[in-house]
Amino acid sequence: MVMGMLKAGGLELLTDGARTPDEDNPKGYYELERVKNLDKTEDTSWLADAGGKGLKVISFLLQFLPDHHHYKIIFVRRSLPEVLASQQKMLERRGTEEETVDDKEMTRLFTDHLETVAAHLNAQQNCDVLYIQHRETLNVPERVARQVNDFLGGRLNVEAMTEVVDQGLYRNRT
Length: 174
What we know:
There is one protein chain. With 174 residues, the chain is mainly α. The protein has six helices and two strands. Strands 1-2 form a two-stranded parallel ribbon. Helix 1 packs antiparallel against helix 6. It is globular and about 45 Å long. The two termini are 18 Å apart. The mean pLDDT is 89.
């Protein structure tokens, strides 16, 4: 949702279209496959082309961003029960059988992970971070769009960003 907002607002995104829209994410994923290898390769020279552009990076991989670039990170926080419900429904739709950890333990693991990531980002002098809430983005998209626009320098189209938010895709609520 946020990547779609950034695109609508006029920010160029680095994506490759390798992961196409599907039932779980009908508006697309806005991903770049190379990002998934940040923890497996030392060749991050391609990041030089990312300056001033939007790039989706999952929280686990943020620690592998090289420190010779400056990053403006928009970190979306979502209710952990909603994250777990969303992941479970995605696995069910795909028919994926995986060993599951109970929700209480998974919540503890996610909470610990998010605290570790926040501490890491806080310690990085080359990272500016804006934390936004998923639910707030859905409920008051104009407010969040303005915050994001201000954070990124004030050049985005806030109205277009706001129009991207689709309440109909908010299916896994707590």
